């Protein structure tokens, strides 16, 4: 039954994407940019509905009050395709730095261009990256929210953290608050797998790290806060979903956390 539901959801997910993109394209491009973004946001909400009704997966968001007004940087954990779109309905005017090849995809690339996302050649250096940062500052000055995955790529739940220092340089140069976001969607929508698991999980938006720290201090603060919250959420999620079949990385980290707790408990 699990595989049947997973297959049905995957078919519905991609059908939903293609149909909405085709049917709503005239409306999308006729609207002003900010109003047009309601269409991707509603698409994200419809995916949440499909996942709940077909797979039986739900989630809740904690800490929305921690999102500052105006420009900021969202720094979420990145485990799944789910977290690339899931929070769009709660973001006022997000902007992504993305690889330029995505602009070449028919329809999708046009949608991205209308929203003034920032393309970059990942192999670029020097003046090109200076131009990307200038463009990023311009968008942030207009009150937009930049989304950066601090680890750069998807990591399985519980895996050893591999943060990249680039976010510290952006924090130093742009001077806006950084909002860490802990979550474990990878336990329900695993990377590189077609199976989807039922259950319930939390997205935890942490208090913002204000601008003004030196890059090294910021970098370590981000890692400490995000990893601590991720560990806490891993324990909570597994306790709330005892049926879950954990990936090896999550099972290993959970065992380590339980051992740490046992060692800290007085005899």
From TrEMBL:
Q: Which domain of life is it from?
A: Bacteria
Q: What is its EC number?
A: 2.3.1.51
- Pathway(s) served: Lipid metabolism
TM regions (residue ranges): 12-31
Query: Does Oxidoreductase appear among the keywords?
Result: no
Q: What residues does the Phospholipid/glycerol acyltransferase domain cover?
A: 72-186
Q: Name one Pfam family in it.
A: Acyltransferase
Q: What is this protein called?
A: 1-acyl-sn-glycerol-3-phosphate acyltransferase
Q: Please provide, alphabetically and separated by semicolons, the GO molecular function terms listed in this UniProt record.
A: 1-acylglycerol-3-phosphate O-acyltransferase activity
Q: Which GO terms describe its biological process?
A: phosphatidic acid biosynthetic process
**Keywords (A to Z) from UniProt:** Acyltransferase, Membrane, Transferase, Transmembrane, Transmembrane helix
């Amino acid at each position: 039954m699990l595989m049947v539901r997973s297959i049905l959801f995957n078919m519905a997910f991609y059908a939903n994407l293609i149909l909405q993109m085709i049917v709503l394209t005239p409306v999308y491009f006729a609207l002003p940019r900010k109003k047009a973004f309601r269409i991707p946001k509603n698409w994200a909400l419809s995916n949440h509905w499909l996942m709940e009704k077909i797979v039986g997966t739900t989630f809740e968001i904690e800490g929305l009050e921690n999102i500052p007004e105006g420009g900021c940087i969202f720094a979420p954990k990145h485990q799944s395709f789910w977290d690339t779109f899931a929070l769009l309905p709660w973001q006022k005017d997000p902007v992504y730095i993305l690889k330029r090849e995505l602009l070449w995809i028919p329809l999708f690339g046009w949608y991205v261009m209308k929203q003034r996302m920032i393309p970059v050649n990942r192999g670029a250096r020097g003046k090109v990256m200076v131009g990307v940062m200038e463009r990023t500052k311009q968008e942030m000055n207009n009150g937009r929210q930049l989304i950066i995955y601090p680890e750069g790529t998807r990591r399985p739940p519980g895996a050893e953290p591999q943060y990249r220092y680039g976010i510290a340089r952006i924090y130093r140069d742009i001077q806006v608050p950084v909002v860490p976001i802990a979550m474990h969607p990878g336990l329900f929508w695993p990377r590189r797998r077609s199976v989807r698991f039922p259950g319930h999980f939390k997205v935890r938006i942490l208090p913002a790290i204000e601008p003004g720290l030196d890059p090294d201090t910021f970098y370590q603060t981000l890692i400490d806060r995000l990893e601590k919250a991720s560990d806490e959420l891993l324990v909570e999620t597994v306790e709330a979903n005892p049926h879950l079949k954990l990936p090896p990385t999550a099972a290993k980290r959970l065992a380590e956390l339980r051992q740490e707790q046992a060692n800290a408990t007085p005899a």
